[in-house]
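stage 2 :: seqdesign
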């Protein structure tokens, strides 16, 4: 057994597909840290927000909290939501629309997408304020913003572990699972806010608002990415 033989030790290499990207691993760590702080510090409010989209009773409890979108816990949650959705968009574009993210490194794309999402979120809030002032629906405006915040939080809580699994296993069919989840959350959110506006007698006005400020920007963004 100590004599020379023709067998040679092959050089073992990790498949580049399963090699974790250092930057995305860092982003996942930041998200996990944020989620841990939120869970430990604001556990009760987090549970209420996660259930509010599907339960009128829990949504009423969220409303009793007062200005739920203006306290510190909501700021942490908003950062977590936007960063999680940003990471999901960058990963999806890298997998299916590579030209949209090929010009910049991963961390730069995260910054660009995060800035765009934050700007879009702010503009939609301003658009909602304008809509409320034009049609006198300040009460409905608060409920719409709260429902949207609950939807984003539910989406981010579900999306985060799925993105981790996708990144480290390359199970791309999970994107389709995520698409189904997004569809269910959007339909539920639309039903909730449409019900509020129909009760107030402004269903048609809200439908125009929804198509203009909620659907049209995403269609334009998708068209731009496909052109790039």
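stage 2 :: out
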């Amino acid at each position: 057994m100590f004599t020379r033989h023709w067998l040679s030790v092959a050089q073992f290499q990790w498949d580049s597909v399963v090699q974790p990207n250092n930057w995305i691993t860092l982003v996942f760590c930041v998200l996990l840290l944020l989620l841990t702080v939120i869970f430990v510090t604001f556990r009760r409010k987090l549970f209420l927000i996660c259930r509010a989209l599907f339960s009128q009773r829990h949504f009423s409890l969220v409303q009793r909290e007062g200005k739920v979108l203006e306290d510190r816990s909501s700021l942490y949650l908003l950062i977590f939501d936007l960063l999680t959705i940003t990471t999901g968009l960058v990963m999806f574009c890298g997998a299916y629309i590579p030209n949209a993210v090929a010009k910049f490194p991963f961390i730069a794309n995260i910054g660009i997408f995060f800035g765009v999402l934050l700007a879009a979120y702010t503009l939609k809030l301003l658009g909602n304020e304008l809509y409320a002032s034009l049609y006198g629906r300040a009460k409905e405006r608060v409920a719409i913003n709260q429902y949207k915040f609950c939807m984003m939080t539910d989406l981010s809580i579900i999306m985060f572990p799925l993105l981790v699994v996708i990144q480290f296993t390359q199970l791309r069919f999970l994107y389709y699972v995520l698409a189904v989840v997004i569809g269910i959350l959007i339909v539920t959110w639309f039903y909730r806010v449409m019900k509020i506006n129909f009760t107030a007698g402004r269903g048609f006005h809200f439908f125009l608002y929804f198509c203009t400020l909620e659907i049209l920007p995403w269609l334009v963004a998708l068209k731009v990415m496909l052109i790039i």
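stage 3 :: structure notes
- The chain has eight helices and no strands.
- The two ends are 61 Å apart (CA to CA).
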